[in-house]
Amino acid sequence: MNRSKNKGLAYPAGIVLAFSLVVVLIIAFSTASASASSRRSVLSLQTPTIGFKNTTYTVSEGGIISIDVEMSTAAGTSTTVEYLTLDGTAKAGVDYVSAAGVLTFVAGDLSESFLIQTIQNSNYSGDRTVNLVLRNPSVGTILNPSKATAVLVIQEDEATPTPTSQGATATAIFTDRYEPNNTLQNAFPTSPGAAALCSATLWPAGDVDWYRFVGKAGSAYEVFTKELTAGLDTVLSVYDTTGRLISTNDDADFGSRASKVVFSAGANGNYYARIINNNNVDPANKTYCFAVTEIAGTATATAFPTGTRVPGVDICEYNGDFDSACLIGAGDSFDMNLVPLWGEGPDNDFFRLWVKPGLLYTCETFALSSVNDTNMILYDQNHNGLGGNDDRAVGDFSSQVSWYANYTGWLYVLVGPVSPPEYALSFLYTYSVRCIETVATPTATPQPTFPPSSGQIIRPPTSTPTPIATDPFTPTPFTSDVTVIPVMTPTPTPNIQVIPLPTNTPATTTGQTVSFDLTVYYDENLNFSPELTEGVENVAVQIYDNLTNELMAFGYTNEAGTVRFSSLTLSGMIRISIPFLQYSQVTTGTSNIFIRVAPVVQQAKPQ
Questions:
Q1: Which of 7, 269, 519, 526 has a C-alpha 20 to 30 A away from that of 384?
Q2: How far apart are CA 375 and CA 368, in angstroms?
């Protein structure tokens, strides 16, 4: 029997079914993998957001707290965000150390933090607040709107004082309906053109009021207080959408205690107004009104600073005050100019550098344009002047100041023009700035030297000024008539400040703190009184503890012959030593001192 020949292959039904199931499973797995891959792709494309971990942080007075900042999704590249602190009811330098800087999230990082140091004091002030702000995230990252700001509460650790009886009449408690609005986060909302917020108070003393309103890019706004009760004096500060200060105003007009700021909005978003009272009388039952209006055109036509950023400004603007000082690290150099951010007024550039004791800091301007002439001033963390410099040397219009640090904290550097340029030419006034950190060991026996310019006003113990061809001071021969004269009249304010040296005196030593001026003068007119033209310049003066014989401070006299010794803590008597005059005298240092150099009287030669 012949069988028919099949041209194809025949498979059992079970094998065919199994093969079909395998194909279906492969297709399903491929589809699921593609779907999962798609989800991963979508997730990887989500933009990470950055914000504070908490909206409120709490720390005890005198403590240190770590502030956590989180990212919602790990980024594939390094990401940065700026942070800063703003005064609430707490004041920088009094209740806490202001902080500002940049947090860097490396690839895959989800959390970073920064520290805030609070300041211990013995006065009862109640709980105080500090506003925390995040701004300027790097490209590819956005701020979480609800977590871009936070509040730090500094808890008072002093006992609540017992109120004293005032008789039948007690101070009225007078709060307003906008409270609590003591922080940027709790700023009371309003709108441009809305009815003025009246019957607002700044009670109790030290109260801070915050308001917020939405601004539109390119629109100009007038923010102001009005209808102040006698006894109030408002100070108004306006901040942009990133928490950067736009402008501050005390009195809008001469004789007025109301305030006004006019500016042009640079971006869409919330703008903030902060109001404090500049009058120290009891603010109970004293009120004011706050309002915002949108005005036609731009704000450049008004007498107030505008928010319109002009072309050509440097990378640090705005940095025209202590609160907005540009952060600079030791060894960093910035290329700057003197173009005003708001298109008017001189451009003053503030910088701040974190310093530590035992180190010498030398800040300088360099690479000045041919038309520029800078002036530099250093300030300590409490904004007290330490000294400054105009010209580094004769014919060199750059500036340089060295300072031996005696605390851990911020050092502020102000650079400004000696002669403010016209706005139209300000872009020609360029310079570079840097601060260098070196280890300096003070010596107890500094030798008098003659620097190239009296502008070098703070000298570290180990610095050796570059010699010049001609000494700026050639002493006239004098006799041994060196006398100490008690001060009877004020002396010219010196431009040299002496920095006290660290000593081995035990920390438990107690004594009075004194400051005094010492003037060396050549009494050319024999009237036993210093004249402005009789000061002996660049004379080294040393102050020793007469009990331990340890060097407490040193300095050089300025062009008026004067050197200032500030905040010296005495355990007893001090000894003043002037090696150049072979002079040594023990005194209490509680009053200003004159050192008279008697002139040589030429005797007629016998005929």
A1: 519
A2: 12
Q: Which amino acid is at 365?
A: T
Tokens of 204: 């109790």
Residue 243's SS3 state is coil
SS (H, E, C) 171-211: CCCCCCCCCCCCCCCCCEECCCCCCCEEEEECCCCCCCEEE
d(CA 576, CA 594): 12
Which residues 6+ apart lie within 8 Å of 474 measured at CB? none
**Residue 417 one-letter amino acid:** P
Domains and CATH numbers, the chain: 45-158 (2.60.40.2030), 172-308 (2.60.120.380), 325-439 (2.60.120.380), 478-599 (2.60.40.10)
Sign of CA dihedral 347, 240, 197, 235: negative
Q: Running DSSP on this structure, what letter comes out for residue 538? A: S
pLDDT tens by residue, 419-440: 888 877 888 899 999 999 998 6
Kind and range of the H or E element at 24? helix 13-44
Distance CA 81, CA 24 (A): 50
For residue 288, the cross-strand partners are: 200
Other C-beta atoms closer than 10 Å to the C-beta of 587 total: 16
Distance CA 184, CA 87 (A): 9
- Reported as a single tens digit per residue, the pLDDT across 487-529 is 334 444 344 444 444 444 343 344 677 788 888 988 888 888 8
What confidence score (pLDDT) does residue 266 get? 86
CA atoms within 13 A on the CB side of 85: 24
- Give the span between the Cα atoms of 116 and 229, in whole angstroms: 37
Structure tokens at 522: 């050549």
- Summarised one tens digit per residue, pLDDT across range 341-400 is 665 567 889 999 999 888 999 999 999 999 999 999 999 998 888 888 888 988 899 999
Which 8-state DSSP code applies to residue 532?
A: T
For tokens 């050092």, what's the residue? 411
Short-list 330, 188, 336, 340, CA closest to 273: 188
What is the band of 299 on the pLDDT scale with cuts at 50, 70, 90? very low
Determine phi and psi for 579, rounding to 5 degrees: -55, -35
Alpha carbon distance 430, 514 (integer Å): 42
Strand pairing partners for 103? 81
Q: Does residue 492 have a cis bond before it (omega within 30 degrees)?
A: no
